[in-house]
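Q: Could you fold this chain for me?
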Amino acid sequence: MVKPELAPEYPAHWEADVVLRDGSTGHLRPMTAADAPAVQAFHMAQSQNSIYLRFFTYKSKLTDKELRRFTELDYHDRVAFVITRGDGIIGIGRYDRLDDPSDAEVAFNVSDAHQGRGVGSILLEHLAVAARENGISKFSAEVLPENRKMIQVFSEAGYEVKRHFDDGVVSLHFDIDPTEKSRAVMESREHRAEALSLAGLLAPASVAVIGASREWGSVGQQLLEHVVEGNFTGAIYAVNPDALEVSGMMPYSRIGEVPGPVDLAVIAVPYGQVQAVVEQCGQAGVKSLVVATAGFADDGERGLARQHALVRQARANGMRVVGPASLGVANTDPAVSLNASMAPALPLRGGLGIFSQSAALGASLFASLSRRDVGMSTVLSAGNRADVSGNDMMQFWEDDPNTAACGLYLESIGNPRKFSRISRRLARSKPVIVAKSDAIGLRLPPGHAVRTTQAPVGALDAMLRQSGVVRVNTIEELSDVAQIVVGQPLPKGPGLAIVGNSAALGTVVADATEQHGLTVAAVESSLVLDMGQSKALPLLKRTVLDVLARDGVDSAIVTLLPVVGLTVDVIAATLQECSVESGKPVVAALTGNIDRRIHVNRQMAQSLPAFSSPGAAIAALAAVTRYAHWLTLESPVFDVLEGVDPRGAEALLDGWLAEVTGDGLLTLDAGQATELLHHYGIEVLESAPFQTEDQAVAAAQRLGWPVAIKTIDPALRHRMDLGGVRINIENAESLRRNIVRMRNFLKPYGDKELEVQSMAEVGQSCTLRAIEDPLLGPVVSFGLTGDAVNLLDDWAHRVPPLSVADTADLIRSPRAAVKLFGYEGLPAVNVKALEDLVARVAMLKDEHPEVAFIEFKPILVGPTAVTVLSVDVRIGNPAQRTDSARRAMIF
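A: Sure. Below is the predicted structure, expressed as structure tokens.
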């Protein structure tokens, strides 16, 4: 036995809740010596064939020596993971380091009852991450030829697997560094599993309301009534130990007494009873939970701890959780017709999927969309978002044929990197509208537990823009955009035609159009329509179709003051015909009428977006136009850059990190920074510190004339106006003279060390910075050095990985960036070279979270060259990023 005082530290950061292939959940953790009885029970429950395939022989029981070897681990050379469901083990995976310290033998054993659920592939992903953490880069395995399922686990993982057959055994060998293919495989499996887990929750075959009450107006009574009156197509059960009859049905006293399987349990019991009810649901085999009960957020740290315990218990028993404090879920598909929510009626059927968090904002969003008669496909209120999140809903919506567009109101994001990855993919096929609270990462809503951000203001919004989402600020704006994308084609460009019956109103709309980045392509604002419906409607249609057919017109807004004899409905029908016939979007601003959406066909067909305010119509249409433009940009895969060696950089960082303890940071010296950057093809113009004038002259002769001298003081080294820099020194005599003058000038600031550096090509001075943020991961920031960033905060931010378009947009986004493209007669700079540098820095930061901070200041961007004059690099031991090369659920 391992002596307690020598026992290795348990690697708790390897623990994870995981979603299996069938959408159910399990808990993955490192094995411990205490698991010996459970490992024996697991082994003895396996079939003879499974035991033979794992051990190449049959053994009915493991010996004590074998159990010790399997369960007593050092978590470095010998690692094993188990996936558990309830109190039992359903899968085991392990690796043992071989004589070659970079290689380890890997093996798996999956319960007969749980094969085909993707247990082996999840274990492989997590073992590979742990192995890489311990310096292992290759896996080997020996498998019997008839063990096709295990061979398939390796061959379908996305690694380049080499096979060798010898003496009746298949030997497999492969590198475990993530590849583009292996990441794609992981993301595809993750997508299928998470989409399926939500499909079971939103389209259950049976629903049980636990806490169903006879008390009119209570949460339990309303939830059961809404499920029944919504004409749910599956089985409905009421659970209440104290009632003989609830809503015309006989209730069961506990969930375990329900005669049939329960796919979804809606929990509306008092706060103190929730934990026990969740435990009973796990024992009864319930698949998903909606927890309507509130109180967790109101109970401080104790409530948050109870919330975490609730989720852990549910996931360990294979269940997903919506809530706590959830308003519920709804699905308008006639084959389901589920209203397990506090909404009094099932929403109008339509193509918009809705996700919200807190109950208050969820109710407001539902009301805003209902006022506009925007039809919905599925609705989910996450409440405290303890488990099911917006990421999960997006996975479901991507495959849902009933959902044409997606709307999310976010108060917190638990995994922004995963959100970015999923939304970028989803937005390619369906518009994704996001209303985001400005408090994300700063002031979390009660009951929400996520990492806080240290990223600069604007970084999260930049990530959303990169991901292709339509970013809005309010619920009303989300509803405005939604009514366009669910009923209209997307515009192919920014050209807008303005049609109306008021020249004054047309002028106002034209001004608003240009302010929102659209182009006025045609104006017909003097229509006379007070001639009766039979003449006015054909005239309106001819006019709108005429302007839509003109070159440069991509969409139209029709702004009409009320006309006697023309009702809103007939105007809407006419304008919708114009949209259908032209294939271009048309929106109406019916000034003087009520603000609502006009339905032409209430059964998910195209319909006309109608606004009472032209300003709201223009803003929404501009947002949709920007989204349509994003769709025309290339995919987010950046071209391979020459001279990039991530493994070489990783080896350097691993060596230097040995000097770092705890949360401390190590600042690399100039030589170390140069060596690291060389592995990404980035060169820094050499500088040489000096103490004496003779040393400075010798350095200048080696580096090459002309030279500059500067103080190494970080506050002064770039400030020519404060005497921290002297440039264009062409000979030794001038250098000695400038050193004396500079030291005299800097005396008020104290003794400052100086350095000498060759002159670079004259150009625009820029700053490029990248950090590792606890919430967002890597963030890259760019600006023009000086007052633009120091006083005006004129930065642009992006979150790697960056596409070619992302990189170009980053450089062009600061307001001062106009100086890069020829400004007041100055020549344009080499923007392509600057983009190449940004791409390399973004790639370095994306691949090495150990680089906690890196700043290039200044970068001189000239007409032909880009020169990095100075760099500051700090490394540390990073917390695990929220989106890694393993599938794992987070709180």
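A (continued): The chain has five domains: 4-177, 196-484, 491-631, 643-685+760-891, 703-759.
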